[in-house]
């Protein structure tokens, strides 16, 4: 017997509110927006959500999660109007992805630890995206440099180019030490007229090339 679907009246009301704002006779600003024009707002709202999560304030999290959710609904409504896809398509695609990538929950495979889950997830992604020939494929190049560095280092560890347990040239074990160290490096760069973001991105492009060369040699 199929379980009844739980209603989400507030979510339905939010969707209806957006549709009214974007409908003829609604809000001129909302009508004028495109996927491209909303990108900056999506980025800003995401960073505001990160701030709310780090502050631990529940009211702020509710507000900022709502702002991010609204961006998803906004993009889906624009796409629906253009006849490209709908919010239901977005939800159905995500459900299918989560079910297919969790066979230890929805099928008969086993993954007892988080590491087992990650390993299985990676293998499933390979099967789903055979066009990707490198572990660096699919990583957004426009990520902030520090976040991109963390992502690429993880990929370098995965293919064996770098040792995940090696501390590197500077062994920092506490975030309380890491923050001031990073700030000091940026301050030194600024004092010498250097662009820290650009410098790190240049190094990351070199690391990407090294990862691909290592993959080719395996």
- Distance from N terminus to C terminus (CA atoms, Å) equals 51 Å
How much helical structure, as a percent, in the residues?
Answer: 55-70%
DSSP helix count?
Answer: 10
Q: What fraction of the residues are assigned to beta strands by DSSP?
A: under 5%
The CATH topology of the largest domain: Helix Hairpins
CATH C-level name of the largest domain: Mainly Alpha
Number of strands: 0
Domain NTP pyrophosphohydrolase MazG-like: 33-106
GO molecular function: nucleoside triphosphate diphosphatase activity
Protein name: XTP/dITP diphosphohydrolase
InterPro entries: MazG-like_dom, NTP-PPase_MazG-like_N, NTP_PyrPHydrolase_MazG
Descriptive terms for the model:
10 helices; XTP/dITP diphosphohydrolase; 218 residues; 2 domains; mainly alpha; NTP_PyrPHydrolase_MazG
Provide structural commentary.
The chain has helices spanning 9-22, 28-32, 39-55, 58-81, 87-100, 103-106, 114-128, 145-158, 175-191, 196-217. With 218 residues, the chain is mainly α. It has two domains: 9-100, MazG-like (Helix Hairpins, Orthogonal Bundle), CATH 1.10.287; 138-217, no CATH class. The model has no long low-confidence stretch (mean pLDDT 93).
């Amino acid at each position: 017997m199929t379980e009844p679907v739980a209603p989400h009246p507030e979510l339905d009301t939010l969707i209806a509110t957006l549709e009214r704002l974007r409908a003829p006779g609604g809000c001129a600003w909302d009508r004028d927006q495109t996927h491209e024009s909303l990108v900056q707002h999506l980025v800003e709202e995401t960073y505001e959500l990160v701030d709310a999560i780090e502050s631990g304030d529940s009211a702020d999290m509710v507000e900022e999660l709502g702002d991010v959710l609204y961006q998803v609904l906004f993009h889906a409504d624009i796409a629906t109007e253009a006849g490209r896809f709908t919010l239901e398509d977005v939800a159905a695609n995500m459900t299918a992805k989560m079910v297919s990538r969790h066979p230890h929950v929805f099928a008969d495979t086993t993954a007892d630890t988080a590491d087992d889950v990650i390993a299985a997830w990676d293998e499933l992604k390979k099967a789903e995206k055979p066009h990707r020939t490198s572990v660096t494929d699919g990583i957004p190049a426009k990520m902030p440099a520090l976040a991109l560095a963390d992502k690429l280092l993880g990929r370098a560890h995965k293919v064996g180019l770098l040792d995940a347990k090696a501390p590197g040239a500077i062994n920092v074990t506490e975030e309380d030490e890491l923050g001031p160290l990073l700030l000091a490096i940026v301050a030194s760069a600024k004092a010498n007229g250097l662009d820290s973001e650009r410098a790190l991105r240049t190094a990351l492009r070199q690391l990407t090339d090294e990862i691909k060369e290592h993959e080719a040699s395996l």
